[in-house]
Every structure is written in structure tokens, then in C-alpha cells.
Amino acid sequence: MAVLPGADPPPLCNSCGCSTNSTYFPTAALSQAAYGSALASGPACGQCFNLTLTETLLADPPWVLNEEQRRNASIVVKITDKCPAPRGEKPGNGWCGATGSQANRAGFSLHFDLSAPSPSVPLSFFPVNSSYGYSDYGGWAVEFEQVSCDNWAGWSNQTVRQLHALLVP
């Protein structure tokens, strides 16, 4: 689809529906097995989770956050998409490829895929340990808890809330 100069861009679409505003708030894609559908909106669409970073997955040696660091490393995200299982690969090979009986490559059955850096999840959200000499650790283990979406930063946006009402009974 071509967009004419001066015209509004088309709305952003994902597995849970379309919204031009939801990407300005913390959203995540959930691994396909947990999402609930490979082809369409799954029951996880529109659900909200509080994610707390606990440790890096790829840093060597591993870095486990202390309690103070973890207090500043939580974010409430809304599930707006699925993180698809890798096509043509064995289950468990990718971040999103967990199945009911096979964990993903990090050993977990769930994967929350955040778009970062973004307007809603800046790089400054992720803690930095200067002793490593770099700040992008590639992946984090998280503790997660399903929470009410009125805890989500996008809840105060009327357009986004109307979309939520359509997705979550």
C-alpha cells in the first residue's frame, strides 16, 4: 500500500488488531504457545503483565540484579502480538519457539518480546553494569505477574482503551 505525501500513515496492525496509538505505550509480543493461536488473535491478546528484570541471559559472567536494581527494572506491558515460533526449525531453537513440552533456547516456556529502544521502552529502562564494558545484554530473564490493565501506562489514552474493550471481554 502506498501512502501519499501529506496523508496519514496506515494504522499499525498486529495479531491482536490495529491501533495507531498503542505502540506509544509499553507493549510486548508473547511466545506463540502461550499466546494461544498461530493464525489469529489468541486469548492472551490485550492481557497485561508486570515484568521485572532479574538477570541477564547472555552476559558472561551472568549478572543477577540486586533488590534495589530490580525495584527500578519493572514495567507493565500489554500483549498486542505473538512472537512466532521459528518456521522450519526444531521447537526450542528460538526465543519464541517453546512448546507444551519443549522450552525455548533460554530454557523458559514463555518469552515476552519487547521493542526496545522505543518511545515506550527506552534503553535507559535496562540496568547497566559498567564492569562488562557494554550495555546491551541481548536478553533478560524476568519474573512476571498478570495484572489489571489499569496499571498499564496506555490505560489513560481513550483510543487505546476503546481497542482494549474490543479485545478483552
Automatic annotation (TrEMBL):
Pfam families: EXPB1_D1 (PF22514). SUPFAM superfamilies: Barwin-like endoglucanases. Residues 13-154 form the Expansin-like EG45 domain. It comes from the Eukaryota. CDD domains: DPBB_GH45_endoglucanase (cd22278). PROSITE patterns: EXPANSIN_EG45 (PS50842). InterPro entries: Expansin/allergen_DPBB_dom, RlpA-like_sf. This is Expansin-like EG45 domain-containing protein. The lineage of its organism: Eukaryota, Fungi, Dikarya, Basidiomycota, Pucciniomycotina.
